Fold this protein.
Amino acid sequence: MKEIIIIIILPVLTGLLFFFVPEKFRTIKALAALLISIITGYLTIVMFSTGNQFLTQDELFASSGMSVFGFNLQHDTGRHIIFDIDSLSKLIVLFISLFAFLILLYSIVYIKAERVKNYYPYFLITLGCAYGAVLSDNLILFLTFWGILGLTLYKLISSYDEESSATAKKTLILIGASDSIMIIGIAILWKITGSLSMGSISLPTTNALSVVAFLALITGSFTKAGAFPFHTWVPDYAKSAPASSSAYLPASLDKLLGIYFLARITTNIFIMNEWLTLLLLSIGAISIISAVMMALVQHNYKRLLGFHAVSQVGYMILGFGLGSVIGVAAGLFHMMNNALYKSGLFLSAGCVEYRTEKEEIDDLGGLSKAMPLTFCASLIFAMSISGIPPFNGFASKWMIYQGIIDFGSGSGIANKLWVLWLGLAVLGSALTLASFIKFIGGIFLSRQKPEFGKVREVPVLMWIPPVILSIFCIIFGVFATNFVVPKLFMPVSGEFQFTGFWNSSVVSLLVVISIILGIIFYLVFNLKRFRTEDSFIGGEKIQDQTGYPTPEFYKTIGEFGFFSWIYKKAEAKWFDIYDISKKFVLWLSHQLSEAHTGVLTDYVIWAFAGLIIMLLIMI
């Protein structure tokens, strides 16, 4: 199957060539990149329509190989260049193509306002390596593509000031550190099983070494996906990076790759024990609640979206932590839904920023009439992520709820806590809705400020991608049980029956009927005839000048008892694993520097101490 080589090599080589094209030809590079995304997208559709295949290098290349210093490169590398085209990988690459095309279309206009040096070369290299990571069966090959993606993630942040430069560095260090831990996990796997093939390993977590390997690999998965406690780079990245970069990486691509790898870890590579199941469910619940609570008090709408990107990962972890067929299907379905509405939200935020040049909710308001398409798409995304029927977010969350209830029939410790997992998941949805009332109300529905009187809808190439994504949110919700889940996700997870009386199409029909009846009642009973009066305050008419900023209502949350203490500690970065590690390294460096006294006797003592330690280790 030559398609697999083309979709990896073509974007990477084109991206490398683009480094030699001057930035003044940015539009030409944008159009060429868009063409590449169309070609690779077509090839992924071809791959999706074919059967599952397991391909080695010898099957992909017809030549006998090239010899260097007596080594046959093709023969020697063939042990590692192995691709597995199964139902899961085909599904992921298909959606990677969709997001790449839409975001490149959006970037043709948007990226002119947010200059990122060599944006299109890094974008295409990211695309090719993402394909390679998803299709790789060999863990070494997978890690190679995975590591390159960490570098392109760093380069797609526009380092235009000290804050953005610090964010880029933080992102690179966290991703790089997690990749190093992954290497340890892969080494332990090879030591235990003698294999590096994800498809052939099925390791029970019955001893300390296998558990360490499991924890090392999920560290890489959680960091890439942005799950607690390795999530702190995501809100910072969302705030500092261009909206197109945020929509491409933390919102869609990194979620797809991180959760894809989590799916491989939990369903293929390891057989989880009871305590690891409890660990995953706990991390999922903590990710949901902690991140959404942080989102509630945000005033910067891009940072708010960043915390929600973390919160939604918790639902996916809950699904895979359940370990059941419906849990795995729900986790994958929510992964895809999240990528749809979260990418759309970041693109919509970019539209608002493009027209207003504002990032604070307090500075905005009343943009619904000026930007109706952006508003409608944002409203659909907000309802989707909040789990409101009949949109896609409700469908996948409902499946997770069903999976948790079924999980409660087991006898393990985690099973007995099913009410806790269910309660926290439902609470997370309620808090998500509360924060998106602030997002929609503060940006689009509150009183419009005079300086935005001339604001208009963004150019057509910028509003088309959010509108398309919003249509996907509707389709994936309305046809969830009848088409989407059976055709896209059951081939990956396995067949199952939906529990309870629920059908997505019936729910959607009932919602439409209720809306139609509401409109009929409104028109028949002349409910539009009502009287409005100005407020009476000492005889002065000030209604047109007064307003109440939407975010002000949410300040009470941050001032309430225990929450106030938590938020203050969060602002001080007590829960930021990067900041904690940085302080520890600086402290350790200071302690070591204190040891350099300049006195010869002290150095001799240190040398003897080192020799004694080495001898003890060798013995």
